[in-house]
Amino acid sequence: MAADRPPEALTDAVERRVDESVDRLLTLLSFDTTNPPGDTRAIADAVEERFAALGVETERVVADPAKPNLLATIPGASDRTLLYNGHFDTVPYNAAAWDHDPLGERAGDRIYGRGATDMKGALAALLTVASAYVQTGTRPPVTLQFAFVSDEEIAGAPGLPTLVDSGRLDANWCVIGETTCERGRHSVTVADKGSVWLTLTADGTAAHGSRPVLGVNAIDRLYDAVERIRREFGTEQFELAPEIEAIVSESVEYYAPTLGEATARDLFAYPTINLGSIEGGDSVNSVPASATARLDIRLTAGVQTRDVLRGIRDCAADCEGIRIEDVSWSVGTYESLDSPLVTAVTEAAGAVTGDRIFRRSATGGGDAKKLRNAGIPTVEFGLGTDTVHAVDEYTTVDALRDNALVYATLPYRLAGAGGE
After folding, report:
1. Residues 17, 149 share a domain
2. How far, in Å, CA of 57 to CA of 144, rounded?
């Protein structure tokens, strides 16, 4: 057996447990963990019981009693640690719109339910991996840690942020089991975007709608300010380092069949600026005296968010009657394409699927960013379907099996890579 390949007994055990994986997923789907409210106590209890039955040590890290986070550890031959991360909660659903049971139903090779592909399918696959290691008596070459968290869908503080702040994560690498495939193309997500969310407020002068010249329209002022921000910042092309350009190039290739090559390239070459909401005015026959807009601005990894935000503040200050009331921001993060983690996941997934695995940036950002900022090299990888958050969301039996095979293989590829 090559040093970077798992023993056949382990992979055989994963493949033999496909039906168990399906049953495990149906059990996970039976717990309604829609967020809000995001109550995950029952599913956490069930997963904790499963680990306990395997003799795997677990620990709860809790900020909100209704939203526990669960840690489980399988000691390895090395104190280097591979962290598998996933989340319990799901987005809401309208059961009346579904043809299948949103709390779990198998139909042929498909398993339907809210969270089937985002991301209870990955949780089921990870539980299968844990079972295979324990029940075959296989000691992993690196320590395996499983972090199943709450509140991911609303980016809530009781979830992963609580776990990170607790200091209990000391991993060398992390793989998040989010689905990273689209229209038959598979990928590992190696980067995410930075963001600026800001609230603009405009002041005007009220007047009757029949004599608008006597007033100052706050909505007009606000819209003019938004257009100026779009004009001054949305058309300025990024200067990206070669390492980021390599990620962008592969990302464009991945997204081009869906978006078109030019649009996909622009998505990373320039900021995206979305006017998410605009409010103002009391009636159609009045000149509004105040208005508010909320902007969502995304920046390719490697771009300095602070510099962009500084420029936007200066721009807003030059717009009469405009104030920035509230700002939240983040910096995009990434893993180098030649890092041991990216190489290991790409090669493991390629070997299992027989397909090309694109190494791409996400168009947004999530828990990977939190973990990278905590000093843990992190990627996202998961096989599934294009039905994330959709009606009749489903995953497949093949995706469950292949995810488990990839996740089971990774400890060996990382151990064989040497170094971090």
Report:
1. yes
2. 11
Residues 210 and 75 in one domain: no
Contact 58, 149 (CB under 8 A): no
Q: What is the pLDDT of residues 300-319, one digit of tens each?
A: 999 999 999 999 999 999 99
The span from the CA of 293 to the CA of 275, in Å, is 7
How far, in Å, CA of 408 to CA of 420, rounded? 19
CA atoms within 13 A on the CB side of 388: 14
pLDDT at 3: 66
Q: 2 pLDDT exceeds 90?
A: no
Do 75 and 142 contact (CB within 8 A), yes or no? no
The model's pLDDT over 40-80, given as tens digits with 9 standing for 90+, comes to 999 999 999 999 999 999 999 999 999 999 999 999 999 89
For 212, which DSSP code?
G
Final residue belonging to a domain, choices 291, 309, 330: 330
| Share above pLDDT 90 across residues of the chain, in percent, rounded to a whole number | 95
Average pLDDT of the chain to the nearest whole number: 96
- Containing 190, the helix (H) or strand (E) segment is strand 185-191
Given a contact cutoff of 8 angstroms between Cβ atoms, the answer to whether 221 and 291 are in contact is yes
Q: In a 3-state reduction of DSSP, which class is residue 246?
A: helix
Who contacts 171 (Cβ-Cβ below 8 Å, separation ≥6)?
A: 81, 82, 83, 145, 376
Structural domain includes residue 256: no
Residues 144 and 28 in one domain: yes
State the residue for tokens 């991996």: 129
